[in-house]
Design goal:
Number of domains of chain B: 2
CATH superfamily of the largest domain in chain A: P-loop containing nucleotide triphosphate hydrolases
Largest sheet of chain B: none
Radius of gyration of chain B: 26 Å
Oligomer: heterodimer
Number of helices of chain B: 24
Shape of chain A: elongated
Helix content of chain B: over 70%
Order of helices and strands of chain B: HHHHHHHHHHHHHHHHHHHHHHHH
Number of helices of chain A: 8
Number of strands of chain A: 21
CATH class of the largest domain in chain B: Mainly Alpha
Shape of chain B: globular
Strand content of chain A: 35-45%
CATH superfamily of the largest domain in chain B: MetI-like
CATH class of the largest domain in chain A: Alpha Beta
Number of strands of chain B: 0
Radius of gyration of chain A: 25 Å
Largest sheet of chain A: 6 strands, mixed
CATH architecture of the largest domain in chain A: 3-Layer(aba) Sandwich
Distance between the termini of chain B: 68 Å
CATH topology of the largest domain in chain B: MetI-like fold
Structural class of chain A: alpha+beta
Chain lengths: 363, 569
């Protein structure tokens, strides 16, 4: 089975004290899943992918594929014996081989008879919409077509696991979106386990069954796209998964249990058990969870002033200032228009907010 | 699941990595480098301080005897003058080509390239034919036809500097012109818009930007100039201008003084290494020039009428550096007896002699072709493996390997020969006088060129191309054969010719290592010259140049890259 089990995996660069590219990583990747390793550059996601592929030997921990240990500090099965596929950020399509020769390479290594191999290659090229281009050289192809050659080359050998290292980052925005859809369909159709590396949170949300958010070499959260977006495990995840406002507040006891007081207004956000009344916290609010209305604040609504606005086409983004001076971003439908200087009152969808203890604040 | 049936390539169980092909090839390359370079240099060091016990007497003799000190002094004088005059010729030519509207820029480029590729011992022979005090045709002409009582004597330090400069000025020219071309006009325009005059701009903006390149080229000219055995023997010895290479050569006359030769060789290495170290330091400082990159748009100066004066200078350079020596050699090669009565005694006899009748020259030509082919092939593959280890592996000590491959750059040819002799005379295998020791000398001397060629190609190939083959199940051997070697093939081919050309005309190391059986082209030229066969020597020289021209033609045809970065001599 094409499952991957990563236990306590660590990789240091330079001295052990120097820096950990990956430290103490635990990850269970189930069969047939589309799993994304997401994080900013330097977070360890590519190192993790290369550890899974076997290009790097871990300093601690193990990687199992099915029930076989393929990597441990004692040694690794080299990449050429893992039977995985990999798509590289720069495609790595061999410039001296034609499209056909690129794709058939793995089949020749597996001693597939010529005629069967030829049929498989042509089928695969048709599947990635490259039919008829088999005699072209990579230099005669567009970036998107080269990307598809790389995909076909990896998929034609029917690997149980396909590793993809930022495969869409070199494409322009429109093509990226198109390839995104094709990748997802391909994964559903083939049932291959995809491990996908990206720094683009929108891409991760759109594609993945599970997202592993990484930062500083450590796993921050592992969960479904909805989980990591709406219920981030910490401020790092909340910050990375899109625009977020951190509003300073205090935990207080209210009629319906604990709530967060911001500027004296109680926001009934989900406060988890370890936080007690009186504790200073940050309330994480997505800009789309803020609703604006004209007029003075009523009960349960925050008063604010519009300080700036940016028209984004499908959205309008407002910069707001609360009474306490805290700045806040909100995004609304373009039908509702406010002007700079308007006094507005805000309501916040409390259920979509997260509450985190404020770093450095005394208990 | 059904999809997994194809997934794993069928291969034998994994061997430990060091036992596989990869391990064997890497190990082989390291061993080759140790045997080719490291051990000979170490035995040179040992021989210079060891004579049945530690001794300082060899160094004392090397630095104490007048003959050795004079040789050292002459080499430094030769190098200094050559470097200086190379600037005087190279910088104006570089400036003319890169920054002015001088006509016939192609001619200057051609002059520089040809001068650079010409083996200096052939140029030396040509100028001896013209300017030897008694028989030199130019002198005879001046005396007997013009009736002037002047005699140019080529057999002097000035004569030696003159002939050497013809070979070394291209080092300054090439580095200076590439630096001048990469200084973007915007730098100069920025100064001018602030009110600087043209002269002020040239002195305060352009000059500092290109100075490191000029100094670096000068040091290369210096290092090359002092290492040339052929010209220093042909011109220096008759005039009693003994230099380090000729002095070391003389120390091998019976009874050979191995210890002193080794000590002197180490001094020679020290001078070369210091100069090369300074050269690298200067070159490193010009990195900011190349920032502008290929797209740099140099500012061309309209010289008006002056451009014809500059053009005249360029023509003089072409005539003196190319037309005169090669015209002379061609003329001599078709003469029964070299002299003023040229048109009365034309013959093809000299070519018949060296190509058909005389077995020594016939053998020498074939030997050189064979040795150059094998040495170039070895150098290129060894270079490819060494740079692959450096760039693609995390092998501990791989940087050391890279440095070891650079050592030969600091070894003048004759020193390489001394080191090989010291090492192999002590070994139980009798290599002295065989083809093998010549091959070792050539591969050892020119392996840096192989490494450099492979290195620059390999750096342009993203490691992911190899990794993509690996994850599909390709073993190391398959990856090299299918991916890496085909991709760096153009670079390797250029590197092959880069080694082939200097090996064909290698003299400095061969002169100590050849035997009558393994005699090479350049040695045959030198020996024939020594025995006074003026006309056949010229014919052999022309054959040498034809071989090189064919090799370069092939290179142009296949790669078009800049061929012939370092010539032997």
């Amino acid at each position: 089975m094409a499952t991957i089990q990563i236990n306590n995996l660590s990789k240091f660069y330079g001295s052990k004290e120097g820096g950990a590219a990956v430290s103490g990583l635990n990850l269970d990747i189930r069969d047939n899943q589309f799993v994304t390793l997401l994080g900013p550059s330097g977070c360890g996601k590519t190192t993790t992918l290369r550890l899974i592929a076997g290009y790097i030997t871990p300093d601690a921990g193990t990687i199992r594929v099915g029930d076989r240990v393929v990597s441990s500090a004692d040694g690794v099965a080299p990449p050429d014996r893992r039977g995985m596929g990999m798509v590289f950020q720069n495609y790595a399509v061999w410039p001296h081989k034609t499209v056909f020769e690129n794709v058939v390479f793995g089949l020749r290594l597996r001693k597939v008879p010529a005629e069967a191999a030829r049929r498989k290659v042509l089928d695969m090229l048709a599947m990635v919409n490259l039919a008829g281009l088999e005699d072209r050289l990579p230099s005669e192809l567009s970036g998107g077509q080269q990307q598809r050659v790389a995909l076909a080359r990896s998929l034609v050998v029917e690997p149980g696991i396909l590793l993809l290292d930022e495969p869409l980052s070199n494409l322009d925005a429109k093509l990226r979106e198109k390839m995104r859809t094709e990748l997802k369909q391909l994964q559903r159709r083939t049932g291959i386990t995809f491990v996908y590396v990206t720094h683009d949170q929108a891409e991760a949300l759109a594609l993945s069954d599970q997202i592993a958010v990484m930062h500083g070499g450590e796993l921050q959260q592992y969960g479904s796209p909805d989980d990591v977006y709406r219920r981030p495990a910490n401020k790092i995840v909340a910050d990375f998964m899109g625009i977020v406002n951190f509003l300073p507040g205090t935990v207080e006891a209210g009629p319906n249990g604990l709530a967060v007081a911001v500027d004296g207004v109680a926001v009934p956000a989900p406060v988890h058990g370890t936080l007690a009344a009186g504790q200073p916290v940050d309330l994480a609010v997505r800009p789309e969870s803020v609703r604006l209305a004209v007029g003075e604040a009523g009960t349960g609504r925050l008063a604010a002033t519009v300080t700036d606005m940016t028209y984004l086409g499908n959205l309008v983004e407002y910069w707001l200032q609360l009474e306490s001076g805290t700045a806040l971003r909100a995004q609304t439908h373009p039908l509702e228009r406010f002007s700079v200087g308007d006094r507005v009152n805000l309501s916040i969808d409390a259920a979509d907010c997260s509450v985190f203890p404020r770093a450095g604040a005394a208990h | 699941m059904a999809l997994l049936t194809l997934a794993s390539p069928s291969r034998a169980a994994a061997l430990p990595r060091w036992l596989g092909l990869e391990g064997l090839v890497i190990g082989g390359a390291i061993a080759a480098l140790v045997v080719l370079v490291v051990l000979p240099v170490l035995s040179l060091v040992a021989a210079s301080v060891w004579d049945k016990g530690l001794t300082g007497s060899f160094f004392a003799t090397a630095l104490g005897s007048t003959a050795n000190l004079r040789a050292l002094g002459n080499s430094l004088i030769l190098g200094a003058w050559t470097g200086l005059i190379s600037i005087v010729i190279g910088v104006p030519l570089a400036w003319a080509v890169s920054r002015t509207n001088v006509p016939a820029k192609g001619l200057i480029q051609l002059t520089a390239t040809l001068s650079y590729l010409s083996p200096p011992f052939l140029t030396a022979i040509a100028f001896v034919n013209l300017f030897s005090p008694n028989a030199g045709v130019a002198n005879v002409f001046l005396r007997e036809v013009v009736g002037l009582d002047v005699t140019f004597n080529i057999f002097t330090m000035s004569g030696l500097v003159f002939v050497t400069v013809l070979h070394t000025f291209p080092f300054v020219y090439l580095l200076a012109s590439s630096a001048l071309q990469s200084v973007d006009a915007s730098y100069e325009e920025a100064a001018q818009i602030l009110g600087a005059s043209k002269l002020r701009t040239a002195l305060s903006i352009t000059l500092p930007l290109v100075a490191p390149a000029v100094l670096s080229g000068t040091l290369l000219a210096f290092v090359n100039a002092i290492a040339l055995f052929g010209s220093q023997a042909i011109i220096g010895l008759p005039g009693r201008v003994v230099t380090l290479p000729t002095r070391i050569y003389a120390l091998f006359d019976y009874p050979p003084q191995y210890g002193v030769a080794s000590a002197l060789s180490l001094l020679f290495i020290a001078i070369t290494v210091i100069a090369l170290y300074l050269q690298r330091a200067f070159l490193a400082r010009r990195s900011y020039v190349t920032l502008a990159g290929k797209g740099a748009r140099p500012q061309l100066m309209d010289l008006g009428g002056w451009r014809w004066a500059l053009f005249a200078l360029c023509v003089v350079a072409f005539v003196v550096a190319i037309l005169l020596p090669y015209g002379t050699l061609i003329a001599v090669s078709f003469s029964k007896s070299w002299g003023l009565a040229f048109w009365q005694n034309l013959t093809l006899e000299n070519y018949r002699f060296i190509l058909i009748d005389y077995d020594v020259t016939r053998r020498a030509i074939l030997n050189s072709l064979m040795l150059a082919t094998i040495a170039a092939t070895f150098c290129v593959f060894l270079g490819a493996i060494i740079s692959w280890i450096d760039i693609r592996t995390r092998l501990p000590g791989r940087k050391l390997l890279d440095y070891a491959a650079l050592i030969p750059l600091g070894l003048p040819g004759i020193v390489m020969a001394v080191a090989l002799l010291q090492f192999w005379l002590k070994m139980p295998v009798a290599l002295y006088g065989t083809f093998a020791i010549l091959l070792l000398a050539y591969v050892g001397r020119y392996v840096p060129l192989g490494v450099r060629a492979a290195n620059s190609s390999l750096r342009q190939i993203d490691p992911s191309l190899e990794e993509a083959a690996q994850i599909l199940g390709a073993s190391w051997g398959t990856r090299m054969k299918e991916i890496t070697l085909p991709l760096i093939r153009p670079g390797l081919f250029a590197g092959w010719l880069l080694v082939f050309v200097p090996v064909i005309q290698e003299l400095s190391a061969s002169i100590l290592l050849f035997s009558s059986e393994s005699i090479t082209l350049a040695v045959a030229v030198y020996n024939l010259y020594e025995t006074g066969y003026t006309e056949p020597v010229a014919a052999l020289a022309i054959v040498n140049m034809i071989i090189i021209a064919v090799a370069i033609g092939i290179a142009r045809h296949f790669g078009g890259s800049r061929i012939g970065l370092k010539t032997g001599g």
